[in-house]
Amino acid sequence: MSARGVKRARALFAAVAGGVLPLLAALLMTAPPAAAAQLTEVTNFGSNPSNLRMHLYVPDNVPAEPAVVVAVHWCTGSGPAFHANTEFASLADRYGFVLVYPSATRGGQCFDVSSPQALRRGGGSDPVGIMSMVDHVLRTQNGDPERVFVTGASSGAMMTNVLLGTYPDVFRAGSAFMGVPFGCFATTDGSGWNSACANGQISRTPQAWGDLVRAAHPGHGGPRPRMQVWHGTEDSTLRYPNFGEQIKQWTNVLGVGQTPAFTDHPQSNWTRTRYGGTGTQAPVEANSLQGVGHSLPAGGMAERAIAFFGLTESVPPPGGGDPAACRVTATTNAWNTGLTTSLTVTNTGTAPVSGWSLRFTLPAGQAITSGWNAAYAPASGTVTATAAAHNATIAPGASVAIGFQATHTGGTAPPTAFALNGSACATG
């Protein structure tokens, strides 16, 4: 890197470090309580072309197949610092998921989100090392490959965007605090800094942003991960226009409209919009914080990220257990390479079910092309149907009728493994 580039990078690191310190108050809330589980460093975890370090946190209460959350630090930070100074560890203790903390080791401790190698699947650099960490945890901790997520702040938020683009078949969702779109930071001169992107001067059409993501893994034809983004309107390090560009990118990638399906204000200066659905696990969620810079105020945002992943919902006990107070009946009509499936979801309990989402697994080869009375994402594999505005509450003893049309490659069976708001349902 040139002397000018080094000077600019040092200025960046100082700015990012200064801006991220207040972020800790937002994600921290309180320091993680003392627990028997300990953060441990893992070495020799697999291919690691950029010599990242890996730390792992496994709570004492993990289920048989725990979810895996990759938590990515800011410039000048580290995995242990992210662990010690944010709420994610205490949330892992509460909800029983495993945490993976990568640490960048290059000068300034920023992650590579700009090189050509980082922006294509299997190209090398940091994403390959992080994927080796995920593979290691899935293998050694019996992690659930259907519940792998990523979150990060600043440089880690940019890496969150990159990982969702390069490994869409691995991650089910991401939450990016103060980041930029996938490919926005791209450079070809060996520099790790893109001033035009940082200053919010790069604007593309939704299609163009989406094409960058699709080009990262051109052979991928399956579902895409959901995305949650957070940004302060007064961010002077990674400026606020990047918030809107991320919305354009991920709504295009996920094939949902850019007009919000839901808008509210969780706090007086927050505006939360959801796209393609109204529930907690909508395909895209965007949180704009009025008057906030490259830091975020307190408000339990770490838990909101975990809720977006679906990890705050109750989880059926290992090996099954009693089903929740719900029942799902499925009826499928098939022809040639297409089918329709109608689902009747009944609340068999004594309390209303509000803001519901129904998770289920499609048979191999089925892919949803359209649906009614709910929003469906992703299109295949483990799908979540999110309530529409007109049927968001199911009264005790009442039912809602939803359904979808799909293509198939021969497997025409109905979905399986129904869970309403995270709890298993009876069928039939």
TrEMBL record:
GO CC annotation, single: extracellular region
Residue span(s) of domain CBM2: 319-428
Alphabetical UniProt keywords: Carbohydrate metabolism, Hydrolase, Polysaccharide degradation, Signal
SUPFAM superfamilies per record: alpha/beta-Hydrolases (SSF53474), Carbohydrate-binding domain (SSF49384)
Q: Name one GO molecular function term.
A: polysaccharide binding
Which positions carry the signal peptide feature in this UniProt record?
1-36
Coiled-coil annotation: which residues? Answer: none
**InterPro entries under this entry?**
AB_hydrolase_fold, CBD2, CBM2/CBM3_carb-bd_dom_sf, CBM2_carb-bd_dom_sf, Esterase_phb, Plant_Biomass_Hydrol_Est
* GO terms, biological process: polysaccharide catabolic process
Under the heading PROSITE patterns, the entry gives: CBM2
PANTHER family, from UniProt? FERULOYL ESTERASE (PTHR43037:SF5), UNNAMED PRODUCT-RELATED (PTHR43037)
Q: What is this protein called?
A: Esterase
Can you name the source organism?
Streptomyces marincola
